[in-house]
Amino acid sequence: MSEQGAVRTGRYFMQGNEACAEGALAAGCRFFAGYPITPATEIAEHMAGRLPGVGGVFIQMEDEISSMASVIGASWTGVLSMTATSGPGISLMQENLGYAVATETPCVIVDVQRGGPSTGIPAVPFQGDMVQVRRGSHGEYEAVAFAPASAQEMFDLTILAFNTAERLRTPVFLLADAAVGHMREIVEIPAADSIERLRRTLPDAEADPYAIKGFLDPDVAPMPVFGRGHKAHVTGSCHDAYGMRNVVDAQALDTFVRVLAAKIRRRTRELAVIETGNTADAQVILVGYGLVGRAAQAISLQARAAGLPVGWIRPVTVWPFPDQELREHCAAARNVVIMENNLGQMAPYFQALLKDQLVWSLPPQILGTLHHPDYIMSHIEEMLK
Amino acid sequence: MNQIHHPMARYLRPGKEVTTSCPGCGEGIIAHSVLRAIDALGMDIDGFTFVCGIGCAGWIPSPYFAADTLHTTHGRPVAFATGVKLAMPDRQVMVISGDGDLTAIGGNHLIHAARRNLDITVLCVNNRIYGMTGGQVAPTTPASIRTTTTPSGNEEPAFDLCRLVEGAGATFVARWTTAHPRQLTRAISQALQHRGFAFLEVMSQCPVHYGKLSREGRATDSLDFFRNQAVRRNQAARMQPGELAERFVVGTLVGEEDIA
Amino acid sequence: MNNSVTEIRLAGFGGQGVVLAGVLLGRAALEDGMHAVQNQSYGAEARGGAARSEVIIATEPIIYPEVTAPHVMVALSQAALDRYVADLRPDGTLIVDDELVARLPADASHRILGCGFTRIATTELERGIVANMVMLGYLARATGVVSLEALHRAVPGGVPSGTEALNVRAIDRGAALVND
């Protein structure tokens, strides 16, 4: 499949959703399946226009269940594959998300979050799916998710999501919200040869198909993709390293669950991307992810300008929860304020992590809007009294 | 002493020659027909991707067939197969799954793949009941049949699967039964050679659940039922609607020439 | 260095093109070498519901990505004005389509400007759909948030192809409405 024209190097005033699609194409994505849903639809529309020109395939499926299914099917042919949706679609994708985790299928799922529960409000920014993408499918597993805060990060983190998915053979989420998806900003698309593109490892083409250990290696097994004579056996049932089903032994289940989890857990530190400022001497640290992270940063800088000891943290990796980095950066602070555009979905994770600090969960005054600087400043002043 | 090998054994994974099907199950006949058809066409089984769902019939290819196999979530094999086929159009993609998987929970994927005329073959094993979970009513269970979830008899009519996919746009549709293994094999070869969406319904016996609960009887009784109640398409055309009530039409129902 | 920031809110009903106007404003800001963020919000209706597009233009990268108190607000409908005018800065500029907006804020300390953008687009340019561009030309000239040249350069690629000349004419017509 052609790399020609896939990378639109240049500087643009570009919408976040479009930047996401361009990031996918630049990463090498050549299969997209999806179903229309506000506020993510522009990603599908853009991929529908662009993929045929680079030798890729776009299909609008009958629902989000089948979108996720066909993405997994395509990934097993060796093609980088993705879908994009919003919360209601994520609810439907959870079934096959679990399948992708269990079968170690690399793919990228973009969730441009809307206000919820249920149909909610389609185009209002909200961060209601933070835990859903972590725990939404049944069983025990680890999730990987990045939260972009700008149109540029919609491009950059989509590439990171693909590289991570390919490297770890696991589904990876891009957790944007409606405002990040719809906002337009400067997006710089670098030269094609400066973009890092990681690919899954494959078994030796000549390998004895029955000797391929294509699953359940904490160091990530080579992926016996279809069409190369590997006679791959891919199942969402509990299986062994050869992909053979074992639905009898608890020991097999133990290995199945532990190895899949270990593959991600062991790499928590290397997967952690977080941005911080002024944390070393801060008495108050504002934490926010996604667009709210920019509010945390801006308000923290405003407070500093007023002479107040305030720092900020913006976790870009939200899953696996970057616990060590967060603990290190919060070590000196007395107050840690978790700003979220929800009623406090990630806050309990911080509260469990930070035993020496006062951890505050602070939604915006009106859910679905960005935290207003005046509102946060009044809280900061209160804490510093 | 020379060892005797089953001619189809070379298409099975080493060490996976013994099925987990219940005694009397029709799936062995169907597996055999699929492999016979591939063999007769001289196709390379490594050119196939088999896709199956959850339920007894999913275990026809998985893990027995020595080929790339995607054993998916319940109801979704056609949707998974869509991704495989679109990303790898040169490969044969064959879905083998059951009536509950393909037409109850997965019904929407089935009709949309038929509408798209996606170039895959879907073989639906219709045993008229949920076997793996122990005998619950299916959309294919005939009216009045007693199952574990219709203790007073099924009050709903059954799906006519072939007419369903025909209405959705399938360009090859055939129905046979496990009592017609040779015709079934030829229909599978036809389906595999068909360009476009090919659907095969195979009526199959489930003596352990359906046979017992419906009092149809043992496996051989079901096979007798299939043989006696099956009506060829040209025969059916000459019959009064009332005469067809308890019977079902077999043969190629949409697509190229009928099978003798 | 001083970071100069201008917050602009464009509001109307769906179909009036306030989102596209915001996008062009952002593109023009880039042409002027500035940083820009454009946000939008709208109801479920494709036409006729409330539509709002906000643009921040700054000399430095923009961290807080949303408008909190606009320096400039444009209202192309009475409903949009009533709904969104409250947090316009007291010394801010309010631009209205004065044939679609009859009731102005009572205690207005704002600089209030207006023209019949929609009528001019319909009668003079024979395309009501470019009322947003007439407004944009007017906005650029009246406030100086972007240069007219930058706005011209933002048109190709920013509007449906084939309509570039019409849009440029509409922008120029709007700019000419400003009394120097």
Name its key features.
heterotrimer; B: 260 residues; alpha/beta; eight-stranded mixed sheet; 17% strand; globular; C: 180 residues; Pyruvate-ferredoxin Oxidoreductase, domain 3; six-stranded mixed sheet; 6 strands; 22% strand
Unreliable segments of chain C (pLDDT under 50, ≥5 consecutive)? none
The fourth-level CATH homologous superfamily of chain C is: Pyruvate-ferredoxin oxidoreductase, PFOR, domain III
| Subunit organisation of the chains | heterotrimer
Question: Strand arrangement, largest sheet of chain C?
Answer: 2-3-1-4-5-6
Using the CA coordinates, give the radius of gyration of chain B.
Answer: 17 Å
Rg of chain C, rounded, reads 15 Å
Order of helices and strands of chain C: EHEEEHEEHHHH
Portion of residues in beta strands of chain C equals: 15-25%
CATH architecture of chain C: 3-Layer(aba) Sandwich
Strand runs of chain C, count = 6
How far is the first residue's CA from the last residue's CA of chain C? 30 Å
Description:
Chain A has 385 residues and is α/β, with parallel strands linked by helices. Chain A is built from 13 helices and 15 strands. Chain A has a 7-stranded mixed beta sheet, sandwiched between helices. In chain A, strands 10-12-11-14-15 form a 5-stranded mixed beta sheet, sandwiched between helices. In chain A, strand 4 (81-85), helix 4 (87-103) and strand 5 (107-113) form a beta-alpha-beta unit. The model of chain A has no long low-confidence stretch (mean pLDDT 97). Chain B is 33% helix and 17% strand. In chain B, strands 2-1-3-4-6-5-8-7 form an 8-stranded mixed beta sheet, with helices on both faces. In chain B, strand 5 (172-177), helix 6 (181-193) and strand 6 form a beta-alpha-beta unit. In chain C, 34% of the residues lie in helices and 22% in strands. Chain C has a 6-stranded mixed beta sheet, sandwiched between helices. In chain C, helix 1 packs across helix 5 and helix 4 crosses helix 6 (164-176). Chain C has helices spanning 18-31, 78-84, 117-123, 131-143, 148-154, 164-176; strands at 5-13, 35-42, 50-58, 72-75, 93-97, 111-115. Chain C has 180 residues and is an alpha/beta fold. At the A-B interface, helix 3, helix 4 and strand 9 of A face strand 2, helix 2 and helix 4 of B.
